[in-house]
Amino acid sequence: MISILIPIYNFNIVSLVTELQRQASTALVPFEIIVLDDCSSVLLRDQNMDVAKLPGVKFHELELNIGRASIRNRLAAMAQYSTLLFMDCDSEVADMHYIENYLPYCGKEVVVCGGRIYRPDPPEEPDFLLRWLYGLRREQLAVKVRSRNPHHSFMTNNFLISKSILSQIRFDETIVQYGHEDTLFGYELKRKNIPVIHIHNPLIHIGLEIAREFLRKTNEGIENLMKLIQAGKIRREDIQDISLLRAYSLLTRYRLAKPFLFLYNQAERTIMDNLLGSNPGMLAFDLYKLAFLAKLIRRNKITTTFFTLL
Question: How close are the terminal C-alpha atoms of the chain, in Å?
Answer without folding.
Answer: 46
